[in-house]
Amino acid sequence: LSDQKEGDPLATNEEEPTNVSYVFPNGDRYEGECCRSLSGALVRNGTGKHTSAYGVTYTGDWCNDKMQGRGTLQHPSGAAYEGEFKDNMYHGAGTYTFPDASVYKGHFQMNRLEGDGTFVDSQGAVWKGEFHGTAALGLKMEHSL
Q1: What is the pTM of this model?
Q2: Percentage of the chain with pLDDT > 90?
C-alpha cells in the first residue's frame, strides 16, 4: 500500500482488511478480504475467491481490485492456470492446463508464454525449450528409453 500515488481512486486506506461476501449486479460473486479506497468504495485486497456468472473462478491474492500475487484461475472448459498474477494477467512462474489435459509449465509475461518452459501434450510427449508467445523455436522433445 505504500507505493500508491496520491489521487489514485483505488488507493486504499491503511486499515485492516474486512471479510465480505458480495454479489455483483451481473451475478458474479466475491468472498474474501477487502478494504475501503480513499474514495470510500470497497476494493478487493488480500485473499479471496471471485466466481463469475459464467463459472470462471479465481482464488488467490488481490491488490487494489486486481488479481495480483499467487492464485488459481479455473475455467468451465477445464482449462486452469496456477501461478503468479500481475495486473489481472498471468505474469511470472506458472502452470497452464489446457482443456485437452496438455500442460505448459514455465514463465509467463502479460498472459503470454515467455521464456524457459516445458510443454506436455495430451499424449504425454514432453517438449522443453524457449517459448515466445505463439512461437517456440528450438524445442527439444524428451525421449523415454
Answers
A1: 0.85
A2: 74
